[in-house]
């Protein structure tokens, strides 16, 4: 299977570098030099993953992530020269699934892209045996990869989907930050601090009362489990 990757960056050397490495992995790379071009390509091409720079003209990376997340749940990886923790946290908070800083190792970037694609596209196959998870008024459709709160659809990132599935499979069980990190990001090297950011965002989406913080231990989902 050939994956279609959209790489958005105004540095042509970076575009050429990743094109060389990703092409060797049987990936077709579509390129854009700013967010406006990227949005046009997304509307015209079937894209499996987006790589986004932050500092770009016209529509910057943060705004591009926001606009993509309004329409799609595809994986988004940031590759940026902005190295501050606040930038990384903000990027992940608004919907990015991974964040890599420049200068970067192209082998690592390629590995991260492959990992995100593997996790995202396995959701429709490895999980196909189950149809839905229900915990009270919270429902997770495993075929469509969509969450519902009181039958209202909720947009989730790929990481949020994996973590919510983990919590909903065993409501009442306490999961440590390490377990959540391992299940959510798996072999994407982002750091445990991003668990707190992601859990905060997930609470906003499904209801703050549904996920409890167990001080010194981790998190648990409140409610009663039902599988259909």
Automatic annotation (TrEMBL):
Domain Response regulatory: 4-117
Superkingdom per UniProt: Bacteria
Residues annotated as domain OmpR/PhoB-type: 130-223
DNA-binding region: 130-223
Record PTM 4-aspartylphosphate, positions in chain: 53
GO molecular function per UniProt: phosphorelay response regulator activity; transcription cis-regulatory region binding
SUPFAM superfamilies (alphabetical): CheY-like (SSF52172)
SMART domains the UniProt entry points to: REC, Trans_reg_C
GO terms for cellular component: cytosol; protein-DNA complex
InterPro entries assigned to the protein according to its UniProt record, in alphabetical order: CheY-like_superfamily, OmpR/PhoB-type_DNA-bd, Sig_transdc_resp-reg_receiver, WalR-like, WH-like_DNA-bd_sf
One GO BP: cell wall organization
Annotated CDD domains: REC_OmpR, trans_reg_C
Keywords: Antibiotic resistance, Cell wall biogenesis/degradation, DNA-binding, Phosphoprotein, Repressor, Transcription, Transcription regulation, Two-component regulatory system
Record-given protein name: DNA-binding response regulator
Organism this protein belongs to: Enterococcus florum
High-level lineage: Bacteria, Bacillati, Bacillota, Bacilli, Lactobacillales
